[in-house]
Amino acid sequence: MSLAARPPTRPVCDMVIGIENIPVPESVITVVVPVAIYFLILGLLNSRKSPQLLTGLEDSLLLVGCGVLLAVPTILSFFGATGLAITIGLAVVGTAACLFRSRSRVWVIYNLPAVCADKLVEDVLKAMGKPFIRDGDQFLLAGNGRVEVSSFALLRSVSVRLHECDEQLRRQFGEILGRATARMSAETSPGAMALLLVAMAMLVAPLTVAAHKAGEIARFISDLLQ
After folding, report:
1. Could you count the other beta carbons within 10 Å of the beta carbon of residue 129?
2. Any domain includes 226
3. pLDDT for the residue 181
4. Is residue 135 part of a domain?
5. Helix %, strand %, coil % of the chain (to 5)
6. Which of 10, 33, 128, 165 has its CA 20 to 30 A from that of 83?
7. Is 11 contained in some domain?
8. Quick check: 20 pLDDT over 50?
9. Quick count: other Cβ atoms within 10 Å of Cβ 143?
10. Is there a domain that residue 19 lies in?
11. pTM score > 0.70 for this model?
12. By residue range, what is the domain housing residue 101?
């Protein structure tokens, strides 16, 4: 074959495929971003120098918030921006009202190993001067009431629930639990680093697409504000 008959070669720089050249469906992005944000928050909570205490309400609102983000594309498609605003408002108010009643005696502690949870609850009850009897993963309180401890090793979190107790006991238990948790030290777990890495990886493609469509996003936000 002569040199003239050879097909022209492409420059190496034109043969390199960047992530911005990989098509990413917008429907996939709307699902990936809320999950990535949730993983990012969990990773940050589990990488603090001390365990992070959240009330059951705060922890549930975190999950509900990410769930609302997942539903945003569907709501926008059927009801528009007004329907989205109304739905978010109703979801926040309704969830907060229900959870305030049903989960006000629940606390979730992130970045706390399960082996440390029982010792933490024991210290809190002793500081309260409340006699108790240990029964598996429960602490039976003298008089009435019990404390239930459960752990979720995958997220390195512990849930503490008060049952059959009055408001004064709940408030006292929550205050002492918060102070005891703040005094504890914790290390960043491998799981936290994995969550952060996965979250960042999931956000790379959406952020790249958003950068290429900055003009369209700006016009969309402008239309919503009008």
Report:
1. 7
2. no
3. 92
4. yes
5. 65, 15, 20
6. 33
7. no
8. no
9. 10
10. no
11. no
12. 26-206
